[in-house]
Amino acid sequence: xxxxxxxxxxxxxxxxxxxxxxxxxxxxxxxxxxxxxxxxxxxxxxxxxxxxxxxxxxxxxxxxxxxxxxxxxxxxxxxxxxxxxxxxxxxxxxxxxxxxxxxxxxxxxxxx
Amino acid sequence: xxxxxxxxxxxxxxxxxxxxxxxxxxxxxxxxxxxxxxxxxxxxxxxxxxxxxxxxxxxxxxxxxxxxxxxxxxxxxxxxxxxxxxxxxxxxxxxxxxxxxxxxxxxxxxxxx
Lengths: 112, 113
Hints:
heterodimer, A: mainly beta, 6-stranded mixed sheet, 5-stranded antiparallel sheet, 11 strands, globular, B: mainly beta, 4-stranded antiparallel sheet, about 0% helix
């Protein structure tokens, strides 16, 4: 059974720092991996989707990498800003019936 | 485009009551999903649909029912509400999970007292 883990559960950094969020999964047979952002009381917004054949995807200050063989993905945020404060979740699609398996998320706080 | 729209945003139910959470999307997506999110937890899949007329169970289907009569609508029915169903419910959709991002609604916060 696929399991997705995100460590740490919470992270606090000063503004301007570069930071890395981690995501690990137990079964490397995945189709893709997505990173989401969730603001308090809101739905999830997809930030980046990496296909299994790709190594990384970039969008602005965000860069997501994927290492299928080791079951790991990272989300790199450059020059963090207070507006980046949110919970970040990763999810994998392993081809089983169309459903994504989510990690529990990392709550990020960027202090001014 | 409105995207994925959920109603209501908040609801309080008494134990044993029933209700339907509404979800509609205007992006002509084939795949639609219902997730629940409990505090400090990730999202758990309740039901999903790969197209009109086709639905299937997710990880936590007990106590819920769904239908998909049109491409746009995917309502979630709670029968005989229980305190364990207190949660935030999210509806989501995408054209294809193999290569497309997932779009979420803004959620329904449900309390069963």
